[in-house]
Amino acid sequence: MHLKTYRTSILLGVTFTVLLSTFWFLPQLAFIIFISLLLQLLLTPLVDRLECHLNRGLAAAIVLGTFLLICLGLVLLVSSTFIPTFTRFVTDFPQITEKLQQMPLIHDNAYLTDEFEQFWLELKAASVDALKSSLTVLLSIFSKFIDMVIILFVTFYLLKDGDDIKVYLASLFPTRDYSRVLALFNRILSALRTYICSQLVICCLTATVVFLYYTARSLPYASVFAMVSGISEFVPVLGPTVASIFGILLTATVDPWIAIQTAGFYLILTQVNHNAVYPTLIGKSLNLHPVAIILGIILGGEVLGAAGMFLAVPFIVICKLVIEDIYKDRMETIKKLRASRWLSKEKHEDK
């Protein structure tokens, strides 16, 4: 087999490897591009609809401006409830841990007491590290005025000229494979849009349901648990599990029976999300095995911390689609070569 036959596949593999490696070597630049691409994927359908009545540049500016105003309103609304509750939660955290250690099942058993104390210290350390990493990521994106301005400008031009940029990038590959590369770009963008939009919907639904449950049961820190549960959905499989354990343990300080009920609530919520909401929103478009997701999240966390855990699934989706495209092209090339050899042999025998 000549390498020239697989030139496009090699170029695709090298290109996406270089692009993904920028998150390791140039994390600030790569993250700005990723956030801009995320916003572009979310807002493009609205710009496409508005373009029927307005110039695309103007449509992109109106949609982006409206989106920023909505985000600002939501931040102000959530902050008015979340910040006071979170402050109280941080203040009460030492008393909460003491109550957990004084529970009969744990306090009366020396082995369980030692094990629980060690586990709780590790959990607190992990929680603090995760919180610091998350806050660092959020601050690095949104608190730096220059970075935010850059993100807005890049998003605007992606909304305005995204199709032209996509066509230009596809034209850089060999001409005979232009349609193949363009189709691959479209599949990647479509899969990412499906994943991102679905995750946002699931995060909002989960946060709302958890907030209503804690409020209806008159449990403390409702907005904190809602925020934790919502954000945890961005880390599939592992995130909801950790959030559930976190909620169950802390409600145990109020009443063990309520903790059991809360465990049932989280179990039902998780089952509904994974068996009804996820299939409805995402369907089989991503087709990722849970083991691949878990291993990807662990690897992403080791490489990039909290940001890596959030980006793990999009990375896996991109790699999966590129590998599938390369494999499909290889199978088609082998099939064509076999067919051409068979025809040549047949012609030779006829002579």
TrEMBL record:
<feature type="transmembrane region" description="Helical">
    <location>
        <begin position="58"/>
        <end position="78"/>
    </location>
</feature>
<feature type="transmembrane region" description="Helical">
    <location>
        <begin position="192"/>
        <end position="214"/>
    </location>
</feature>
<dbReference type="Pfam" id="PF01594">
    <property type="entry name" value="AI-2E_transport"/>
</dbReference>
<feature type="transmembrane region" description="Helical">
    <location>
        <begin position="221"/>
        <end position="239"/>
    </location>
</feature>
<feature type="transmembrane region" description="Helical">
    <location>
        <begin position="245"/>
        <end position="269"/>
    </location>
</feature>
<feature type="transmembrane region" description="Helical">
    <location>
        <begin position="137"/>
        <end position="159"/>
    </location>
</feature>
<dbReference type="InterPro" id="IPR002549">
    <property type="entry name" value="AI-2E-like"/>
</dbReference>
<keyword id="KW-0813">Transport</keyword>
<keyword id="KW-1003">Cell membrane</keyword>
<comment type="similarity">
    <text>Belongs to the autoinducer-2 exporter (AI-2E) (TC 2.A.86) family.</text>
</comment>
<keyword id="KW-0472">Membrane</keyword>
<dbReference type="GO" id="GO:0005886">
    <property type="term" value="C:plasma membrane"/>
</dbReference>
<protein>
    <recommendedName>
        <fullName>AI-2E family transporter</fullName>
    </recommendedName>
</protein>
<dbReference type="GO" id="GO:0055085">
    <property type="term" value="P:transmembrane transport"/>
</dbReference>
<keyword id="KW-0812">Transmembrane</keyword>
<feature type="transmembrane region" description="Helical">
    <location>
        <begin position="12"/>
        <end position="38"/>
    </location>
</feature>
<keyword id="KW-1133">Transmembrane helix</keyword>
